[in-house]
Amino acid sequence: MPLTSYLYPFLAIVLWAGNVIVSKMAASAIAPTAITFYRLILLLLLMSPFILRPLWRNRAQIRRHWWQLAISGLLAMALFQSLSYRAAESSTATNMAIVTALIPLLTALLSVIVLGEAITVGMAGGAVLSFAGLLYLVGHGDVGAVLRDGVHIGDALMLLAALSYALYGVLLRHWKMTVPVWQAIYVQAIAALLLMLPQFLLLPAGTALLDARTLPLIAYSGIGSSILLSFLWIEGVKRLGPNRCSIFINLLPLLTALFAILWLHEAMHAYHLIGGGVSLAGVLLTQLVQRPLLRPRVRVS
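Structure (tokenized):
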């Protein structure tokens, strides 16, 4: 496998880490609903010249899967994005990235429920490790604080966002749609835009302004973390396969923490390293140890 193939998922994660930073910067500049709505419009405007003609030729297949594409758009482009932006209002970029990196573990757990896949040793051990690390992280090194005071709202919203994206991935495997990837992304964006429209129209005045501060954030969200990131990730999966690519998600907290220190001047604490490290160890365990937890019973005739 050429080493250049590994650049695709790596650069995708670099853009994803940048998007977490943009989410934090957007928290004080524009409403979460507004930036989600604008990024979808930008995505559709840029993709339309290349997608509309093949989409029209494939309209029969699109009609056949329209409700599945609509649900996919709700989970991946409306809920995940808007919850992430909302979480950024009260969570740190580093915390957001660590929670986001739990997506492979959440996907594995949901696969057991939705797809009926077997529970593996790695999945069981990884879930325990990741949960313990997450409690240590959100409690700032004091697990008892979580039990006393509850989970911080920003971290809870980020966990919901990660769960939404994990469910999206599991449902795609369950439905096995044959719609070409870029056409599916385009239709999902349309569905997400329509779902976000009522919330956008109800936004208070002054929370959805387009100005010198918000336009670069929207541009990065629409171009960098929507189109370029998707292209790099899709190409990486083609060259390396989904399992190899998913391991690169473990780099997300490290890169995000580095960017947060450089640009947002966030402080790095021991609980980030310990809690994040334990959580990511759990994710790696889930991905690498695939032996079934329970062996099938052998019937004796």
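The mean pLDDT is 90. Residues 120 and 292 are 4 Å apart (CA to CA).
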